[in-house]
Structures are given as C-alpha cells and as structure tokens.
Amino acid sequence: MTINSPPGTGADLAPGRKKHALLTAPWGGPFAELLVRWFEENRRPLPWRETYDPYHVWVSEAMLQQTQVETALPFYERFIARFPSLQSLAGAEESEVLKLWAGLGYYRRAKNLLAAARIVAARHDGRVPSDYDALIALPGVGPYMAGAILSIAFNKPFPVVDGNVRRVLSRICGWTEENPKGLWAAAEQIACSGEPRSVNQAIMELGAKVCSFKAPRCLLCPIRSACVAFKTGMQDRIPPVRKRPDTVHVHLFAVVHKRRGRYLMKPSDGMWEFPTFTELPPGEFKQTGSCRHTITHHRLDVSVFTGPLGPHDGFEWQALEQVPVSSLTKKIAALAQVGGRN
Question: Which residue, 95, 244, 260, 299, is the most exposed by fewest CB within 10 angstroms?
Fold first, then answer.
C-alpha cells in the first residue's frame, strides 16, 4: 500500500521500489497488537480523545507543538469552551484568540490556526479537510500535523514523527546517528500495521510515559523484546543528542508607566508588552524588582522600573486586562505593583 508521505522523506512502499533496510523490523503482527493493548490500558483521558472531532484534534496538535500535555491542557479547555467549533474560531478577532493563548507561548501557532480556520471556513464548507494536500496547504500545518490530524481524527494510515516517536523508533532500530528517512519509513509502516488512530497514538504515548529521554522505564515497555537499544544497553546514547544553540544572555530594562488605570504599552506581533530597553532611558524611575524569562535559547534578565516615560512613537495606553499579553509581561506587571524578585 502506498500512502502520501511527507515530501522529501524518501518513505515509499510502492511495489517495485527498493525497500528500506529497516523493513525487516517487526512492525506488524504481535508488535502492533502489544503496542495498542498497552495504549488501551494506559492512555491518558485527554478531552480530544473523547470524540476525535477533527477540529478538536487540530487545536490540540497546534497547542502541543513545543509544549507538554500538562501545560497545554487548561489552555485547550478554555479555548474550546470559547470556540467550540471551527466556524466560531474563524469568526473571531485575532486579539481575542491571542488573549486566550496568552501564557502558552509560540504565538505564531495561534495566528496560523486562526488564518487556517478562516481558509477552511471559506473554501472547505467549514470542515477540516481529510486530504493530505489540502491540509498541508494550510498555514501552520506541516507533515507531522497533517499526519496527526489524518490518522487520529480520520483514522487514515498516515505517519507521524514527533520527538516521542523519534526516540522510540531510534531505540527500537538501534540508530546511533540521525536517520530521518528511516524514521518516516518506519512510521509509515507502523501506521499501516493496525488501526492508524490507535497505533500512532500508542507510540507517541509510549514515548511520553515510558520511553523517556532520561531514565526510560524499559521494564514497563510492552515492546522491549524488539528494542535494539534495550538489548545492547544503549538507551542513554540513542537517539543521538542534538546540539542545542548556545544560550544568549540579554539584559533588559522594563519601564512600567501607569496612568488612570491604564499602562503605556507597545504592540508586538499581535500581543502587547511594556516598553523595554537595552539601557535605562533618562527619567525618574524606581526599581521594583527583577525577573528571568527564557524564550527558546535566549535568557532574558529583566530589571523592572516604574515611572513616567517621555513620548515614544508606537506606544499606546492600554488596560492590561483587556489586551493579550505574554507571561513575561504578566511577571513584569506583578513586580511593578508589589515589588520583589521573581
């Protein structure tokens, strides 16, 4: 069976094509059955798993990019309560969507989700497409998310490769070096080895709960008998650790200017934040605290001051509770009101 693989992965099981070496791995039969049985007994009761509504699955996948389930769950519940359908999201203002997303980070995800929902409402009669090419054309939808929506929501045999899947498959196959083509080929075979919705979620769940990056709980793994890393004791070396960018340290000065219940703020990609500077501008300011905040590989050390700012282009008076703000902005606001260190 040939399915639409992500472009450029090299995963292709069409008859007559040279098969990848890992096709000898036992993805079907008992392997898939053990994996799915374990999933049915151990899966987390997540709300999007109740009905597998395509829109709900899509929202969950957007929120779970670069974010753990435990962190995303309360945001998901509030988001779905406010926007229970794709049509309700498509008709929303961007500021309202960002306000609900505030604190989850990576706000481009929210903007892409809104833009994609409007496209689906206009071109697909408000229904999430069940076609790979239509999905991949939407803002913010890449090969992983398209595969996740198609397999989980529509139960179609499309592969998924996220960090959890990469870790599980690399250990099973014993890959000590990166093997993206092999990963997608293996994921494709697994999606075809049983009910796609179940096997794909099972291997992701296994990576999240058992096959962890540090101290994997191998004795609890239902498929350890097929795992090369377990047999050879190389779990701590597989998969290969990706080199992270060096941490960039940045020192900023945030100035909080409040007047008649409103704050002088500046817009930043749909969000609102307090003015920050690399050097404290001239003026009479009082330091009320400091905080640290990490954005990808940037670590921000922010000194918080209160006091009147002179005129600056692009600043506006805003009511803090009425505009979307980041978690860093909330930290700064708290320090400006009560003082201290966070």
Answer: 260
- The count of other CB atoms within 10 Å of the CB of residue 146 is 25
User: Which entry of 33, 50, 61, 273 is annotated as an active-site residue?
Assistant: 61
- Residue with tokens 């905080």, as numbered in its chain: 291
What are the domain boundaries of the chain? 53-154, 248-341
The CATH T-level fold of domain 248-341 is Nucleoside Triphosphate Pyrophosphohydrolase (3.90.79)
* CA–CA distances in Å: residue 1 to residues 11, 17, 188: 12, 12, 10
Q: Which tops the pLDDT comparison, 27 or 332?
A: 332
Residue 301 backbone phi and psi in degrees, to 5: -105, 115
Which top CATH class is 53-154? mainly alpha
Helices and strands in the chain: count of H runs, count of E runs: 13, 9
Give tens-digit pLDDT for 192-217: 988 999 999 999 999 999 999 989 99
Known catalytic residue at 70: no
Residue type at position 246:
D
| b (16+ CB within 10 A) / e for 73-85 | bebbeebbeebee
> Which helix H or strand E contains 299, and what residues bound it?
strand 298-306
What would the pLDDT profile of 212-228 be if each residue is shown by its tens digit?
998 999 999 999 999 99
- Structure token digits, residue 82: 């406010």
**Tokens read off for 230:** 């377990």
Average pLDDT rounded to a whole number, residues 49-70: 96
Helix (H) or strand (E) holding 40, with range, is helix 30-42
Say which amino acid occupies 219.
L
Dist. CA 18–CA 33, nearest whole Å: 27
Question: Exposure string (b/e) for 163-192, b if CB count within 10 Å is 16 or more?
Answer: ebbbbbbbbbbebeeebebbbbbbbbbbbb
Q: What is the pTM of this model?
A: 0.83
